[in-house]
Amino acid sequence: xxxxxxxxxxxxxxxxxxxxxxxxxxxxxxxxxxxxxxxxxxxxxxxxxxxxxxxxxxxxxxxxxxxxxxxxxxxxxxxxxxxxxxxxxxxxxxxxxxxxxxxxxxxxxxxxxxxxxxxxxxxxxxxxxxxxxxxxxxxxxxxxxxxxxxxxxxxxxxxxxxxxxxxxxxxxxxxxxxxxxxxxxxxxxxxxxxxxxxxxxxxxxxxxxxxxxxxxxxxxxxxxxxxxxxxxxxxxxxxxxxxxxxxxxxxxxxxxxxxxxxxxxxxxxxxxxxxxxxxxxxxxxxxxxxxxxxxxxxxxxxxxxxxxxxxxxxxxxxxxxxxxxxxxxxxxxxxxxxxxxxxxxxxxxxxxxxxxxxxxxxxxxxxxxxxxxx
Amino acid sequence: xxxxxxxxxxxxxxxxxxxxxxxxxxxxxxxxxxxxxxxxxxxxxxxxxxxxxxxxxxxxxxxxxxxxxxxxxxxxxxxxxxxxxxxxxxxxxxxxxxxxxxxxxxxxxxxxxxxxxxxxxxxxxxxxxxxxxxxxxxxxxxxxxxxxxxxxxxxxxxxxxxxxxxxxxxxxxxxxxxxxxxxxxxxxxxxxxxxxxxxxxxxxxxxxxxxxxxxxxxxxxxxxxxxxxxxxxxxxxxxxxxxxxxxxxxxxxxxxxxxxxxxxxxxxxxxxxxxxxxxxxxxxxxxxxxxxxxxxxxxxxxxxxxxxxxxxxxxxxxxxxxxxxxxxxxxxxxxxxxxxxxxxxxxxxxxxxxxxxxxxxxxxxxxxxxxxxxxxxxxxxxxxxxxxxxxxxxxxxxxxxxxxxxxxxxxxxxxxxxxxxxxxxxxxxxxxxxxxxxxxxxxxxxxxxxxxxxxxx
Lengths: 374, 457
Hints:
The complex is a heterodimer. By secondary structure, chain A is mostly helical. Helix content of chain A is about 70%, strand content about 5%. Chain A contains 15 helices and 4 strands. By secondary structure, chain B is mainly α. Chain B has 19 helices and 4 strands. The longest helix of chain B has about 30 residues, at about 45-75. The radius of gyration of chain B is 25 Å and the shape is globular. At the A-B interface, helix 5, helix 8, helix 13 and helix 15 of A face helix 6, helix 13, helix 16 and helix 18 of B.
């Protein structure tokens, strides 16, 4: 017993000497968890309240994971941090919502078609008056999901053709800077077309929900949250099968590892890159749309705001790893919402970035290190 | 190639070269002013508006050139991919604000905060030091990261800074009897006027007030010339700072310290193997750059009367990057050119064009994109679309910047004056001419030749 304690002590001392940052992180994590336990035990934070936070965090996390898969794939296969990924998410959300508005508005029967196409720019049509929701207008939402995915794919392929392919052989930094240019162009074109207003797009009052009892209270779960979970799980599962059961997954791993070698072995690298964009952008578009359905509001810089947490998720999970992106997304989502137990709400996003920065410093290769694209 | 020679230390005629670059830069800035004056004439601006527009242009040219110079030290010289510029600017001006705002020793009314009431020059020094120290804190752990990870860390930190400034818990706090704070979402009111303080510092206040009257009447500025001339004076003040920035960075770039930085940029491993403590050099370079960004941030916002966290969104970081890429990373002259071109054409230009068009053409406003596009589809009438475009220039100009950035990365990644392969050696690299040697050596050994030797490597 005595020796065990000395052993642990010595181990701790060694850790402190060799890697002070990691030691500090361990201590902080332990203190936070003890504090959380104490807060729950003393009733300072009711367990049901924590349940709500955890649920919120999981929702956000699923979005981060879904959007992060594409970012992670382009990062490992094309070798650059794509700063326009967030605006791809926004584009998908806008395109999907456009389709939803048109279908829910009866193709111009209930409101001016132009206003529907512009997702009610300038307050001309409201999502609530069209009754948009998974329960109230399932067809419109289904069409919206599909359009979101497809148009994000189309946009990503077009952007790749115009912006990235001509400089494919350049350094990752040159591509990164180019992607910042793409992000700017996309974001402000969206604002130019759809206007600067933030709009409510769902009939948030009409969303059916159930109250799940939890120890000292209830946690309400609504249909939009359930649909986000269902869509995310189905897509992630489908992707898993796609990459495990087909040659494409293997080819992607090979490309991420060594592009020249892959090409020499006969892998059609351009086709693999196209598949990467298709998968990544499709997921980003759908993720953006589902996030908007869940969140109920849509605005032109949504994706940009979400980009850094998505980066955090991808880095946390390990660049190139799809499961890493999912796990990283959940961790970042939880960190963002559960952190309000300790810090003011306004700093919850800062908390996510701190987690990311600490992860980069302590373990830059991520949780699922060295396992690329599968 | 002739551009490359301009910055080249090899010629040993630094004075003449500085003169040459200065001539180039002065010509550029004068050309930009001329353009704006012509535009102003088209708008039938009075003298007052003309002076105003020149003062504003001067202000933006100076701040973006300063920021591009500071960023050039990070990226152009040392290869540090910093996309958190705005965070350091925010730290600079917030520190200055807190140090130099009027002291409040009694509980202030809700929504207002005081500072420590120190003189402004002390506040500015404090702000620069705070930005540099923060840069050091970032750099210590983060410098061992890859360039793209480093980028993500810096932008993450700049956002953390903004969230902290927004946070209402820090809005107002009492420190040692002083009521101060970060002001939260409503920001801080800057109750100091840098131009006034500058004049007072040199005892010129009264001379200046008298001068404004006479200059005002001579130029025909109207009844109250002070605000216009204040703006112009502040712009000129920034120009002095810009020259200071340029000379400092030029000095750094050509010093042994600067040569190590360039060596790190090209190959850190090799530099370390030559016995240089590369991390130490990188931290120092990063801290100097951050301090300069802090100073540029102070100068950017000090005259504005108030600061809010919303002004510190990452887009300004990217503006500075665009300026640097236009001018050419690795060249100080290029950074200034980039800052000037960016400020005149991409930052102020579209709005100026918007003013000109709106002044000359009288049309009804078009509110939404739908109303703008419908006439094109329906009756092939592009006018509403044009009006909408002009109306929304403020948004569209950022999209234009994005496209320009993509274009530059495709076609001219080295920028207007980028010459990252400038010789790192203080003496000529050409072989001494040996009689009877064949081909490769040059007998006249001018600096152009030297550059070619290094570029081709």
